[in-house]
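So, can you check this record?

>
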Amino acid sequence: MTRVVFLLAPRAYLLDIAGAADVFLAARSLGLPYELAYFAEEPDVPTAEGLPVRASTRVPALGRDDILVVPGGAGFTPGVAPAMRRGLDLLRVHHSAGGLVASVCAGTVALAEAGLLDGRRCTTHHDLQDDLAVRYPATTVVRDVLYVVDGRVASSAGMASGIDLALHLVATAHGPGVAGRIARSLVVYARRNGQQPVTGLLRHRNHLSDLVHRVQDLIETRFAEPLRLSSLARELGCSERTVTRHFVDAVGMTPLRYQHTLRLAHAEHLLADGSTLEEAARSAGFADSRSLRSLRKSKEPQHQ
């Protein structure tokens, strides 16, 4: 079980909390082992929108696989992480124990105040980027991206970008197909990031064919396995010709090409997070690293 614990500060933004939380909640509804929890210095947390929320004041027990998330809020400015003394200590302890820490929007300030951004790359809301760079000169602030992952420290830009970061974390752990299903359930399409492969596949979900969505669900669940068109058609109760025709019309490629695209996206996620070419190829279902290398090369832009 992976616990995702949100560290709440006074005047937290509701969207900063709910956007990322809903991604992990949707993952749990798909049977993935996620548990959500909320921690604050005081049990009643006023939000920027005026709607109070309640959180636990008991410091949670965390393991290496758990995630600490700091949503941003109106009280965060470079140099100021409001009423988060125990929260900052928890960030330091969890990270030093090998855990992942993350922030949404202005919550990046808390990571900086905890000393976790020295020598690392990060991002935050564009209104805070200049001040953040001046206040924490040992940190490299990356602009014009939705999120940045540097080792076990992740940060995202504006409020809604917490959704993109959470989708990336789920895709890295469970594959882009799972992230695609979650994005579809949240009605989020074509989320991309300038720095890393995220969920570019989501653009292939921007159609209204229920049959094709069902085919995509089947492929995404077993993309690393050998799949036959005849098996897909049999599970859907229709002909191979019908599956192929509807799939090409909606997605612009055959089911087999879509499976290869999923495999490549999953492998790119793993490579971006430090896996070797052989490890990424094996996990994504390629016969060997040469097959993955060949497919990656075929996707490179050709210069005249």
